[in-house]
Amino acid sequence: xxxxxxxxxxxxxxxxxxxxxxxxxxxxxxxxxxxxxxxxxxxxxxxxxxxxxxxxxxxxxxxxxxxxxxxxxxxxxxxxxxxxxxxxxxxxxxxxxxxxxxxxxxxxxxxxxxxxxxxxxxxxxxxxxxxxxxxxxxxxxxxxxxxxxxxxxxxxxxxxxxxxxxxxxxxxxxxxxxxxxxxxxxxxxxxxxxxxxxxxxxxxxxxxxxxxxxxxxxxxxxxxxxxxxxxxxxxxxxxxxxxxxxxxxxxxxxxxxxxxxxxxxxxxxxxxxxxxxxxxxxxx
Amino acid sequence: xxxxxxxxxxxxxxxxxxxxxxxxxxxxxxxxxxxxxxxxxxxxxxxxxxxxxxxxxxxxxxxxxxxxxxxxxxxxxxxxxxxxxxxxxxxxxxxxxxxxxxxxxxxxxxxxxxxxxxxxxxxxxxxxxxxxxxxxxxxxxxxxxxxxxxxxxxxxxxxxxxxxxxxxxxxxxxxxxxxxxxxxxxxxxxxxxxxxxxxxxxxxxxx
Lengths: 284, 207
Description:
By secondary structure, chain A is an alpha/beta fold. Chain A is built from eleven helices and eleven strands. In chain A, a hairpin with a 2-residue loop joins strand 1 (about 5-15) and strand 2. Chain B has a single domain (about 1-205), classed as Class I glutamine amidotransferase (GATase) domain (Rossmann fold, 3-Layer(aba) Sandwich). Chain B contains six helices and 13 strands. Chain B has a nine-stranded mixed beta sheet, with helices on both faces. The longest helix of chain B is centred in the C-terminal third of the chain and has 17 residues, at about 190-205.
């Protein structure tokens, strides 16, 4: 039976892990390769590197990180952050990465996902969706939206995607770490990304990210039930029950977490044992 | 030396790094001469069947690969490297394969109300039926990493070496004489995956 995946996420800036694992048996908490090996030994199912390098000149450093990681760690590796062109994807894949996660570039130009999937295959194109619940009453006043230019034309597709009349159960797509609302309905966006060739959705609730209150289960379920590609739930994990809920109630195919693993609140193995005891298929 | 065939698809660096990790002598190449001279051939790759066949054809590698396989050279196919061994794929109409084995490559199809996602992505178990020699150290029902939307249906059930359950039971590994091929990715399957690469390297050395 296909196992539900547990995926630790590492934030990498200028080639160094930010908030790295603080373990006595890890040589260098800031070294991405050491962190990757650490999670590999715990039985992580995949790894995600989120590249938060701000300066454009230093962007190539992540290639070196991927190259070194792929020398020692033999599991699927996804890199997200700062991917702007097909060349960026090619360089990452050539360095030894398996999938790339794309958010802003997809929002600015959805056709990029189509081009990327046609060139490299859907299986390596992950679309990252940062979504935030829309509250009807606040919708008009509290947002300075950055509506992408392509969304302004009034096609049937755009009317479907534009979040102009949110119901109570609507979520809006954001970019730039939850700072920029884009006027796009997250559920419709996920479906559209699948149509264009995305192979997987990495879904982060911006309402829950960093709160440790658990996933936005309604959002996770709404998207997971709307697409037929796998969905990775992210944002808000504070304990192991949250992981269980994301899969059982949220219907996620995989769960991603950062801080509960970094700050050694739990190991990946503990998380898997917990899920297994609850009757979920995991790889132990 | 093991030739890892580079035809411009997928992450083949990991396959090379995997062989290096287990101490096997392997190199990435798209040179027919190097492939002919090699002790063994590895054909990895993910993506579209049609593109795979076209790229191999453009690089003038189709004949080389088929000839070397038929001469008895050890071959390890991974993912697309398994699928193209068969007669044809139903991807984008019908696309011809290498026809080393009789059979078809078909897409997963599930009812609309099914929870099963396509692609089949993640870790799933392989039931060995029976285990090929390069699987000496691999327990039955071990987990391996998959990512694919199509699977093979061999006409000759004798070549089936492993099965996996995903909505139905499909062939996840074949083995006949010098030919091994897996639907899953040994190079992404941590320690057990590396053992398969090691096992293939040793098989190639003895061949």
